[in-house]
Write a structure and sequence with these properties.
12 strands; alpha+beta; about 180 residues; single chain; two-stranded antiparallel sheet
Length: about 180
């Protein structure tokens, strides 16, 4: 009887500690192969419901592991409201214009939720829909795309309707999705 009570007391004492630990979600692997095509970000291809998904392995065709893509930041601390990313942000004295996996434990991409992680130490895991395998950096305005000049982010040519911008003066292949801080 005493050992049962002791065991229950131990479980009661340890249970709150276990509840505080959260396991980060399995990350998307970008780029990934699906139906012999390389995808740089989440896609709805192959889904009748139109929802975005990504592979959690480099080649879905060979190892069909996947998950639904989240369009909101993941909470890294229980009780945190899942604050949105703020770009650009400073980490270790370097400016980031997109999510990073620098110093992350399982390669999971993260972002600061203030402009200065070094000072505030606030962050969250990035929404899957923020991730892409293209080069990242600051938007370049104005930029030319399809013989038209843009002085702000555009959704032209983007199947999902998300705003994007060029990372060079004349768009060739380097681009990034726009964040609210970059929309003019």
């Amino acid at each position: 009887m005493a050992s049962t009570v002791s065991s229950l007391m131990l479980i009661w004492a340890v249970l709150p500690l276990l509840a505080v630990h959260t396991v980060p979600p399995v990350p998307c692997v970008l780029p990934f192969i699906y139906n012999k095509t390389s995808y740089l970000n989440c896609t709805s291809d192959g889904r009748a419901d139109g929802k975005l998904w990504c592979a959690t392995t480099p080649d879905y065709d060979k190892d069909p592991q996947w998950k639904n893509c989240s369009d909101t930041e993941y909470v890294n601390v229980p009780g945190d409201a899942g604050q949105p990313c703020v770009f650009p942000f400073i980490y270790k004295g370097k400016t980031y214009y997109t999510c990073t996996n620098e110093d992350a434990q399982i390669g999971r991409f993260w972002c600061a939720t203030t402009g200065d992680y070094d000072k505030d130490r606030k962050w969250n895991y990035c929404a899957d829909t923020r991730l892409h395998a293209n080069k990242t950096g600051p938007c370049v305005f104005p930029f030319t795309y399809d013989d038209q000049s843009y002085s702000s982010c555009t959704a032209k040519g983007e199947k999902t309707g998300k705003l994007w911008c060029s990372l060079t003066k004349n768009y060739k292949s380097s681009w990034t999705y726009c964040d609210p801080s970059e929309i003019r």
